TrEMBL record, chain A:
This is Leucine/isoleucine/valine transporter permease subunit. The keyword Cell membrane applies. Keywords: Cell membrane, Membrane, Transmembrane, Transmembrane helix. CDD domains: TM_PBP1_LivM_like. It is found in: Cell membrane. It holds the Pfam family BPD_transp_2. Its main location: membrane. GO terms for cellular component: plasma membrane. The chain crosses the membrane at residues 27-44, 56-89, 101-123, 130-148, 183-204, 234-258, 264-282, 322-344. InterPro entries: ABC_transp_permease, LivM-like. It is a multi-pass membrane protein.
TrEMBL record, chain B:
This is High-affinity branched-chain amino acid transport system permease protein LivH. InterPro entries: ABC_transp_permease, BCAA_transport_permease. One of its GO terms (molecular function) is transmembrane transporter activity. It comes from Oceanibacterium hippocampi. PANTHER family: ABC TRANSPORTER PERMEASE PROTEIN, BRANCHED-CHAIN AMINO ACID TRANSPORT SYSTEM PERMEASE PROTEIN LIVH. It is found in: Cell membrane. Pfam families: BPD_transp_2 (PF02653).
Length: 358, 316
């Protein structure tokens, strides 16, 4: 009754091809943007910023990046953590080498650096695929983390081997460093996520996105009908790494403000983002956000229930938490292997028929 | 010269240890096309169970303590009982995995199955810690240790007895496995399933039973590998990371080949030690983490299906 395309007539090609063809979807989208930009900045506090909202935004970007590569182009990658590290270290080097450079440009440039690195490590994908490729991307993961640990140039010869983000501001508001307010960092990340998500959504609808999907569905057939595999696969690696690099740069500069490669960008980070993509839904933009929200909230909720509700010892709670997270992941894969995005589209289908299901 | 030989020898022996882990991967991948990321944690879990039984730790002692129940009623179990118990635990685990995970994921895409095994790895890791605690446990199963004296005296080469023992055990294991798969009824069924799932089903082989058997065997191999690694460096969480060591071995040898896993392990072991010796000092050392991957990658560019992997034939 409420949600259907009936009566929403399209009278021009432009109307027909817009990003959200159904009017209720458009309302929902604009409504959510309005809440995100106009309401949340006034109610956000430090805890929400650091442990829920920023992780969600940063990991959404990383998940979009990985979804482009794995969900849309069918190339399985386990090097996400390493590429995030490239973004983080690129932003650190740029910030310290050119102090007057605007932070927005720094972050975009570090995305560009990561894209170049990603293309280099994407080269094996021209020859190998499937799990062989997944293991090959692990080479990138371990090599990059090792590089940032071993070469002092990357961390400016600091004694601890850590990198710390200097303070930068935009329109007079500090967005990095200890002075930054929750609202400023939140809006800064949100702006990046909104713009980049829209760009990604439109890339996927266009020629490039279709060539990615044709490679994913059957690469030989795609090659025969004239999709150049090299350009397509490398462009998928480049775009995906660009997003992941920006996520890494935001992760380091805005969210944590300091980082150390082994802990912050280890292989667990790669798995975490892959889980987000799979649980959210492979090949779905919405899925990237849902998956990120799910994986960010799940440990927090479990911990609060156990430590707050049942008074379990924190050490014990940690073990129970790992077990529960693992079981819930398996449970989700069994119940809905196509992810939360599929659940949402089933719900929409139901809403379309409601209240007359037959 | 003797230093070079020593390096190569220790590389070969380290390679055997990698092969032991890779073997479990190959068995499961052949039988079910599942890329079992949990194999490393399986090793940890098996070694943890064996070590804790021999130390007389009570399962779930912290949890029992929290609930106010008695938590020190386990006797110290001698090794000849502890090993069968651990094998039984691993078989039980195979049942549980088949019953609660694999059964529902038949015919899913490989990536979904892969993610499920990562989930499984989390569960096993958490369960291992919950049951036995997360402290480092010593594990001595009576394997010889220390330098092999006559090699040291005559050629001035240091070889660890434990690694020789591991090589012997690995050889025995591989021979036993190949005899099992060649000459027994179950072994033939296993090979049939590996060859063609549907054809195997159509002649009346039960896939579920086969999966339980394969996961049990993988659990047993994990126990052997875990025991060897545990005897070397104590049973602790880092043991689960040896799975990451076995992955380059796998892509080098091919996911579907047992000889590939063995030879791949040896190549990686030697290559790693030689690289650490010759290239390590120039580029800062500690390259063990990624060198194996780069070696395997360079190899893959020449032969995309690995050393002995089945040739990939693609049709539109």
């Amino acid at each position: 009754m409420l949600y259907r395309e009936t009566g929403d007539f399209k009278v021009s090609y432009r109307d027909d091809q817009q990003t959200f063809p159904i009017i209720q979807d458009r309302w929902l989208f604009w409504g959510m943007l309005a809440v995100a930009f106009l309401v949340i900045p006034f109610i956000i506090d430090d805890y929400w910023e650091k442990s829920i909202v920023l992780p969600f935004l940063v990991f959404s970007l990383a998940a979009i990046g990985l979804n482009i590569l794995t969900g849309y182009c069918g190339l399985l990658s386990l090097g996400t953590g390493g590429f995030m590290a490239v973004g983080a270290y690129a932003s650190y080097k740029l910030m310290t080498a050119f102090p007057e450079l605007n932070i927005v440009i720094v972050i975009l440039l570090s995305g560009g650096v990561t894209a170049a690195v990603g293309m280099f490590f994407g080269l094996p994908s021209l020859r190998i695929k499937g799990f062989y490729l997944a293991v090959a991307t692990l080479a990138a993961q371990f090599f990059l983390v090792w590089l940032f640990n071993k070469v002092p140039w990357f961390y400016n010869y600091s004694a601890t081997g850590q990198i710390t983000a200097p303070e930068r501001s935009i329109f007079g508001f500090a967005v990095t460093g200890p002075e930054a307010t929750p609202a400023a960092t939140y809006l800064f990340c949100l702006a990046f996520v909104t713009v980049l998500a829209l760009v990604a959504k439109n890339l996927i609808r266009g020629r490039i996105g279709r060539s990615w999907m044709s490679i994913r569905d059957m690469d030989i057939a795609a090659e025969i009908i004239g999709v150049p595999p090299m350009r397509t696969k490398l462009s998928a690696f480049a775009v995906s790494s660009f997003y992941i690099g920006i996520a890494g740069a935001l992760y380091f500069t805005v969210w944590f403000g300091a980082a150390e490669p082994t802990e912050a960008f280890g292989i667990n980070q790669s798995f975490l983002v892959l889980f987000m993509v799979i649980i959210g839904g492979l090949g779905s933009m919405l899925g990237s956000f849902l998956g990120a929200a799910f994986m960010v909230l799940l440990p927090i909720v479990l911990k609060n229930i156990m430590v707050g509700g049942f008074d379990v010892l924190p050490v014990l709670a940690k073990h129970v938490e790992i077990t529960l997270v693992g079981s819930l992941i398996i449970f989700f894969l069994i119940v809905e292997p196509h992810g939360l995005a599929r659940l949402w589209s089933i719900a929409k289908e139901k809403m379309r028929l409601w209240p007359f299901p037959h | 010269m003797s230093y070079l030989i020593e390096t190569i020898l220790s590389g070969l022996l380290a390679g055997v240890m990698y092969s032991l882990v890779a073997l479990g991967f190959v068995l499961i991948f052949k039988a079910s096309q599942i890329f079992n990321f949990a194999q490393g944690v399986l090793c940890l879990f098996a070694a943890l169970t064996l070590a804790s039984l021999m130390l007389g730790n009570t399962p779930f002692s912290e949890l029992l303590h929290t609930l106010g129940l008695p938590n020190d009623w386990m006797p110290v179990v001698p090794i000849w009982i502890a090993v069968p118990i651990t094998i039984l635990v691993m078989i039980g685990l195979a049942f549980v995995i088949e019953r609660f995970v694999l059964r529902y994921l038949v015919n899913q895409e490989p990536i979904i199955l892969f993610m499920a095994t990562i989930g499984l790895a989390y569960v096993l890791e958490g369960m291992g810690d919950l049951m036995w605690g997360s402290d480092v446990k010593p594990l001595s199963v009576g394997l010889p240790e220390g330098a092999l004296d006559w090699m040291f005296d005559r050629f001035d080469i240091y070889v660890d007895k434990l690694e020789i023992a591991a090589a012997v055990v690995a050889t025995v294991l591989v021979i036993a496995l190949s005899l099992f798969s060649q000459y027994t009824r179950i072994g033939r069924a296993l090979r049939a399933v590996a060859d063609d799932h549907q054809a195997a089903l159509s002649v009346g082989i039960s896939l579920r039973t086969i999966w339980i058997i394969v996961w049990s065997i993988a659990g047993f191999v994990a126990l052997v590998a875990g025991t060897m690694w545990g005897a070397k460096s104590g049973v602790q969480f880092s043991l689960s990371l040896i799975a990451l060591k076995a992955l380059p071995v796998l892509i080098l040898g091919g996911f579907t080949s047992i000889p590939g896993a063995i030879l791949g392990g040896l190549i990686i072991g030697v290559g790693e030690k030689l690289a650490e010796l010759y290239a390590g000092p120039y580029i800062g050392g500690a390259i063990e983490n990624w060198f194996a991957y780069v070696l395997a990658l360079a190899f893959l560019l020449v032969r995309p299906q690995g050393l002995f992997g089945e040739r990939i034939i693609e049709r539109v």
